[in-house]
Amino acid sequence: MAGGTVISAAVEGIVDEAVVRKLIAHADATPGDVYGRQGKSFLRQKIASYNNAAQRMPWIVLVDLDRDHDCAPPLRIAWLPQPAPYLCFRVAVREVEAWLLADRERLAQFLGVARRKLPPDPEALDDPKTTMVNLARASRRRDIREDMVPRPGSGRQVGPAYSSRLIEFASRDWRPDVAAGRADSLKRALRCLKRLIEGAA
Hints:
The chain contains 10 helices and 4 strands; from the N terminus they run E-H-E-H-E-H-E-H-H-H-H-H-H-H. By secondary structure, the chain is α/β, with parallel strands linked by helices. The two termini are about 15 Å apart. Strands 2-1-3-4 form a 4-stranded parallel β-sheet, sandwiched between helices.
């Protein structure tokens, strides 16, 4: 059950929003308003405003590392050298899909693939999104393949309901505490949220 601390958030997109809402609830707090959802560039334009708001109220900002830097600290310094006391600014290595891939048992069940097909170290992947699509391509379930795999000739990286399927998984089946065992950046995000909640109490 969610606790009394309300945490606002800013994210790149709607899958990130589902993940952040799950993390906040998992940390026994209540998700507040979620901002951004217009891509990474928009988030960076607004980061100073979010940081200013976090001078008084708890916030979490989640961004993908992608290929911008070799690791998370340089990105955090480049974006926000002086985070506010109530801001949890976290970087998913390299994409938030890596955090979902880290719950191997549940994701294998959801996608309809053998667990051995999932990568043992998802944060070591260069492109977790492509790995997710390729796993869906190997699914025993036709609906998963049709929703998550791009149609031939579409020119798209993902299928038409890729985000909807990941939101469904993140909201319903994903276990952040289990996934944190295979994703250090997720583990640090959970610790940051717990410190944030303790500090706001």
